Every structure is written in C-alpha cells, then in structure tokens.
Amino acid sequence: MNKKFKSMKWEVMGVVLSLTLIITGIMSFMLLSIHKKSLINEVELRGISIARNIANNIADYIMMKYELESAKILKEAMQNKGVIYAMVVGSNGVILAHNDMTRVKKKYKAPGKITGATPAKNIIFETPSGEKLIEFTAQAVAKHKAKTGTVRVAVSYDLISRALKLTYINIALVTVIAVILSVIGAFLLSTAITKPINILAEGVKIAGSGDLNHKIVIKSKNELGLLAGAFNEMTDDLKRAQKTALEKKAMEKELEIASRLQDSLLPKKFPDMGKYEASAFYKPAKEIGGDYYDVIPLMAGKFGIVMADVSGKGVPAALIMTMLRGVLNTEARLNADPVRVLINLNNGLLGRVEGNIFATIFYAVLDTAKGAIEMASAGHHEILVYKSGASAVESYCPKGAAIGILKGNDFESRLEKITINVGPKDKLLLFTDGISEARAASGARFGMNRVAESLQKNGGKTCAEIQQGLLRDIEIFTGGEEQSDDIAVLTVGRTA
C-alpha cells in the first residue's frame, strides 16, 4: 500500500509539472514571437527613418559634389546605435558618398550573402565574418527632383539578438519559479487526496472480488465525494447489469444459431437447368430473419422455384423456415401441381406451429421442355417477368392467403394458379419485401414501380447483372441508409 501511495504522488506531480511546462512553453513561444516581431518592427522603423533622413539632407550636396558635407551627414548618421555603415550609391553602382571617405568612387559591393528579408522587404545580409546586417534604402532626390542616388544604411542584427537573449533569460527564470511552485502545489494536492483515494481503491478491490453490496463512505462534498456516490451507484448498476448481460449473451447466442440455420437453408449453387439460368442475392438486416429461396430439381426437366418469407426474427423464424424447407422439398417432388404443394405445406405448418407465426411463399414449377411455368402464391407479393420479345415488364400475383393462418377449405378456396410461357431471353424476378420497402432518409419507399423500372432497364442482361443493377438502384435511392429488413432476390431466365 505504501508503494502505491508514493507512485500516486509522483503521478500527480508529474501531471502538474508537465502541464506547467507545456503552458509555460506555449506562452514563452508566443511571447518570444510577439517580442521578436516587435523588435524587428522597431529596428525597421529606425533604419528606414535614418535612411530617409540622410536622403532628405544629402541630395543637394551630392548634386553639387560637396564631398566633405556629404561625409559629415553620413558620419552623423553613424552616431545612431547599431549603424554599421551609411553611403550613397549612384545609378551606375559607384559609391558617391560614404562614412568612410576612402570608399568613395569605388564600386558598391554587397556586404555579404543574402539570408532573408524583413516583413518590410528590407534585405538581411550575413557577412563573411558571420555578422548579420539589415540594409535599408531610400532615394536621394535633389530640390529640382533629380535623383542623385540611393542611400544605403546597414544596421546590426545584433540589436535584435541581444534583446532576445535578455528575454530568454527572463523567461527561463519565470519557468524555474513556476516549476518550483508547481512541485510544491502538486505535493500538497496529492497529499490532500491520498486518503479518500485509498478508501476508493479499497472499495474497488472489494467490489472486484465480487462483493457488490459494499458501500464507500466519503463525507466530502467535493469531486471525490461525488465519485464515491457514483461508485456506489455503479455497484447497484452492476448488480442489475449482471442479469442483463446474461440475457444479452443468450440473445447473441440465439442470433448466432439463427444465422447458421439460415445460411444452411440457402443454396450455395443452383442445379444445371440447360438453356435456363438462375442467380440469387441475399443481404440480412441487423437481425436474422426468415427469407428463403431455392431452385429444386424435379423430374423430366422440371424445376421448382421458391421465394418465401417467414414472419418474425431470430431462431424461431429460422427454425420455421427449416421445417418449411424440408416439407416443401418433399411435397415438390411428390406433387407436380404448385397449388397442391402449398395446400400440403399449410396443413403441415398448422399442425406443428403455435402462436402468430406465418409465412408468405411463392412457388412455381418451370417446365424447361415446354418453356412454360405454373405458379401459385400463398400471400406473397407479385413477381415481375421481363418479356424479351416485347421489351416489356409484366406483373403476376396469383391469389392466395399466407401459410399458417387459415385452415382447410378457407385456405384452398383462396389459391389461384397462373400459367405463362417463358420465351427466349425472358427473365423472372422474385424477391422479398425488403426490396420494395427499402427506404430513403426521407422515409420514402423504393416501391414496386421502381423495381419494375430497374428490370425494364436491365432485362436484356444476364440474371446476375439484373440483380446487380437492382441493388445499385436501391443503393442510389436510399443513399446508403441502414435497411430494416432482409433483402432476398432470385432471378431465373431463359438464355435462348
């Protein structure tokens, strides 16, 4: 416990010290930046002022070639702090006047390498000896407005450097004082909070061992007191959460089982259908539903085509669909009539399922030799058929009630069988209501009309391409909104 106590103090002190250094560093950087800018501006104002003053006073002397008077003005300028040289350079680059008269009539040469410029575009030079100079210029104009030359005044950059060094020293002293005060304050702070923190730590240890009935008593009305109260509330919440966690774990397990069941139901590939092809797509919503599709090989070139949707979610829906799939596969091979298959399927479900569980099923028998399909529906919405010869989309919706609601004749009397021909390159589009009920952010539904439009647009393509086009249209319409229901699509088409 003593070891933990010491480490806690050092942590608090480290945090406070770090914050102090960070804040001091940021403030120091800002102050230095501001101070440096101010110093540069001050030096620039002085340098420009000196250059302009020389230009105003020396122009006439230069015009009249009064070398001594010109040199006197330049030497007076040298009395200003930090001035290194002052001169007047003619338009031909020859020095007309200089504080050092030995330089007069010589060619002007830059004092060193250009290393930068001030905000006011005054050039910064570095001499071969390493000294930095700022050169200021001004035009010397005589009384008759004749340009006599360019005044060049160099000021030492050391004026700025020396001032900045003094600022560095002051900031360093302030930083040291701030660090000392921070260490003292951090020590006092860590000492003040150690006792209640130890009480909290002990309470956490007890709760961690499984005793959620333990309560922490800290009478302080500060943040630590609030923390103790929050801890006590947390232990109460944990007791409630234990029960919730068990329920959630059971639900997750149920969804996992349902997902496996549903995955086992859906065909991984379709049987060889000769001059016909089939393609399917399935995308589950957040919860596992009961969508199911299949192509069942029958005898004599016939195939059963199924699209179904069981009410409800999770394991119950998956189990019901598993049972329906088994019964449907058996009945499809025993009965060539799709209506009879649905009747027997309804009877089987009513006898085995309790509660408000039902299923909508579209079932059809495709005769590849005759190029015809017989279809019946137990409450499923319409299917769409692309007629290649007319380049048109037709809708078919045989009458019928959902499986698992009505009994005997009440169910049978509502069933209808429809037979259509399947011509070359015709396509059948079967789907669950997750397609038509896909919603945009505005709440608008995709709807059957848009499904038909998509099929009309892509009907001349392969079954897989038709599905891709439909899903792309849905994605564009919904804008990527999260779906609330499963999406299942089955496309069957004649290739020739």
Write a concise synopsis of the structure shown.
The chain has helices spanning 2-63, 67-77, 158-208, 223-265, 314-334, 338-350, 408-412, 433-436, 447-458, 463-478; strands at residues 83-89, 95-98, 113-117, 123-126, 132-141, 147-156, 276-283, 290-297, 302-310, 359-367, 372-378, 383-387, 392-396, 417-421, 427-431, 487-494. With 496 residues, the protein is an alpha+beta fold.
> What is the rounded Rg?
46 Å
The CATH superfamily of the largest domain bears the name PPM-type phosphatase domain
Mean pLDDT over the residues: 82
The ordered H/E elements are HHEEEEEEHHEEEHHEEEEHEEHHHE
Molecular shape? elongated
Q: What percentage of amino acids are in beta strands? A: 15-25%
The first-to-last residue Cα distance is 84 Å
- CATH fold name of the largest domain, please? Phosphatase 2c, domain 1
Q: How many β-strand stretches?
A: 16
**Which blocks of ≥5 consecutive residues have pLDDT under 50?**
1-5
CATH C-level of the largest domain: Alpha Beta
Put simply, the count of helices is 10
Overall tally of domains? 2
Spatial order of strands in the largest sheet: 2-1-6-5-4-3
Question: Considering DSSP H and I runs of 4 or more, what fraction of the residues is helical?
Answer: 40-55%
Q: Could you give a short account of the major beta sheet? A: 6 strands, antiparallel
Question: What is the CATH architecture assignment of the largest domain?
Answer: 4-Layer Sandwich
Structure classification: alpha+beta
